[in-house]
Amino acid sequence: MTAPEDSPASVVPPLRRRGEPMRRAVLSAAVELLSREGLAGATVAAVARAAGVHETSVYRRWRTRENLILDALTSELDSALPIPDTGRVREDLLAFFDRLARLLGTPQGHALLRLSVERDDTLDDRRGPYWRDRLDRAVVMVRRGVQRGELAPGTDPGLLVEAVSGPLFVRALLSRAPLDEALVTGLVDLALDGARPGRPAGT
């Protein structure tokens, strides 16, 4: 006779994961749940269950659900979007934003987009710093271009990065139109055209 689905005999006991294997399992489970169910489904209990670890282990390491979610998304985004250094600002930006466009077409990318607009009082105050930190990583490419003389000295690195990333986010979030290489190239070149040395300000 089989045990009912909700009986103790049918519950798979958590695995005895520790250290880095436990961290990777929990973060992967968190991103997967965020991708499928959004913030509402990414509870600590659900993440622990999906990762096969004890809920107390998750709380012991991350303390709060908010810390867990931000760590999961930071790890996912930073590993998926390394900052290239080809020696040319255009090549750096093309490589970076091509990776971003590809990421936005995945379930993980959709989770990131959903977190940008989904209301959650416990996360609202922390999403601003999270995205500013990600932006600070990307502006390094533009600053290097300014230092090499490829871009005008007065170029605003953050504004240039936003000029490319903004349309990608809007298209992925609202229209779901393709985020292809031609689009990335067009946006990068359009942004760079306004930051080339010798271009009069405001023209």
Architecture overview:
The N and C termini lie far apart (79 Å). The chain is elongated and about 60 Å long. It has nine helices and no strands. Mean pLDDT is 81; it is low at 1-13. By secondary structure, it is mostly helical. Residues 43-62 bind DNA. Residues 20-80 form the HTH tetR-type domain.
Give me the secondary-structure topology:
Layout: H1 19-41, H2 44-51, H3 55-62, H4 65-80, H5 89-104, H6 107-117, H7 124-147, H8 157-175, H9 181-193
Helix pairs in contact: 1-2, 1-4, 1-6, 2-3, 5-7, 5-8, 5-9, 7-8, 8-9
Strand percent estimate: under 5%
Number of strands: 0
The poorly predicted ranges are 1-13
**Helix and strand succession?**
HHHHHHHHH
Mean pLDDT: 81
Keywords: DNA-binding, Transcription, Transcription regulation
DNA-binding region: 43-62
Pfam family, one: TetR_C_11
InterPro entries: Homeodomain-like_sf, HTH-type_TetR-like_transc_reg, HTH_TetR, Tet_transcr_reg_TetR-rel_C_sf, TetR_C
Task: Provide tags for this entry.
203 residues; mainly alpha; elongated; disordered N terminus
Concise summary:
By secondary structure, the chain is an all-alpha fold. 68% of the residues lie in helices and 0% in strands. Residues 20-80 form the HTH tetR-type domain.
